[in-house]
DNA sequence: TTCCTGCACT
DNA sequence: AGTGCGGGAA
């Protein structure tokens, strides 16, 4: 079986087993961008607390957030961890949004994917995973998101080597799958859900895993 | 105590 | 390649 076919089998198996994910959790493109920064190396439940702190004060809007001083913003997002550096990263992203689209995120979607991705990666604090999360989930661009779970799952199924880097792994998917936003959206979500529940870092629980039959 | 949908800096 | 950033939940 080709690796392309196997990737689609993985997808269909996970979707049939777990059901659709309805990702990304977030009511607006901007909220999705904020969540993408806050969830860097951080449990989503902690991100949710930080988002709620902002939302309950009606601060989850670019203009309002940009006018907050860094100290207050950091305090509000404290539950998400790395709060000082993440406050700075949010401000960096806000400055990008101001310059690029005057805070009107849908305007970004007219830009070419590769060009927009390069620009996002120049923002301090926006790395490849955060950039692709914003592109895919906030802007609905067909940019596949990979993460620690993705490489772990594919490595344990002998599809890629252990130390594959981010862009190699992203290309692995994008070279083998149709460039489809809905497919990329759901595939990444399913891999994260699988990683959290079964494909743990130190103690994988292959019994009961939807992909167990592929081992 | 470990781990969490990373990234920048040295 | 190694390290700092960090609170919260299991």
TrEMBL record:
Domain HhH-GPD: 38-197
Annotated keywords: 4Fe-4S, Iron, Iron-sulfur, Metal-binding
InterPro entries associated with the record: DNA_glycosylase, HhH-GPD_domain, HhH_base_excis_C
GO molecular function: 4 iron, 4 sulfur cluster binding; catalytic activity; metal ion binding
GO biological process: base-excision repair
Highest taxon listed in the record's lineage: Bacteria
UniProt xrefs under Gene3D superfamilies: Helix-hairpin-Helix base-excision DNA repair enzymes (C-terminal) (1.10.1670.10), Hypothetical protein, domain 2 (1.10.340.30)
Pfam families per record: HhH-GPD
Protein name as it appears in the record: HhH-GPD family protein
Source species of the chain: Desulfonatronospira thiodismutans ASO3-1
């Amino acid at each position: 079986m080709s690796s392309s076919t196997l990737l689609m089998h993985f997808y269909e198996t996970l979707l049939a087993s777990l059901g659709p994910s309805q990702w990304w959790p977030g009511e607006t493109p901007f909220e999705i961008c904020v969540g993408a920064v806050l969830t860097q190396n951080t449990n989503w439940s902690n991100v949710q607390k930080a988002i709620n702190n902002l939302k309950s004060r009606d601060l989850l809007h670019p203009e309002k957030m940009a006018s907050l001083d860094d100290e207050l913003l950091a305090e509000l997002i404290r539950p998400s961890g790395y709060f000082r550096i993440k406050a700075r990263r949010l401000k960096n992203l806000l400055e990008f949004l101001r310059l690029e689209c005057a805070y009107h995120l849908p305007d970004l979607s007219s830009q070419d994917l590769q060009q927009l991705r390069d620009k996002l990666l120049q923002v301090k604090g926006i790395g490849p995973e955060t950039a692709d999360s914003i592109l895919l989930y906030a802007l609905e661009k067909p940019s596949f998101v990979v993460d620690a779970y993705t490489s772990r799952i594919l490595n344990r199924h002998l599809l890629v080597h252990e130390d594959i880097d981010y862009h190699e792994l992203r290309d692995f998917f994008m070279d083998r799958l149709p460039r489809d936003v809905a497919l990329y959206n759901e595939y990444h979500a399913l891999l994260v859900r699988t990683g959290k529940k079964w494909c743990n870092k130190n103690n994988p629980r292959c019994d009961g895993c939807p992909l167990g039959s592929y081992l």
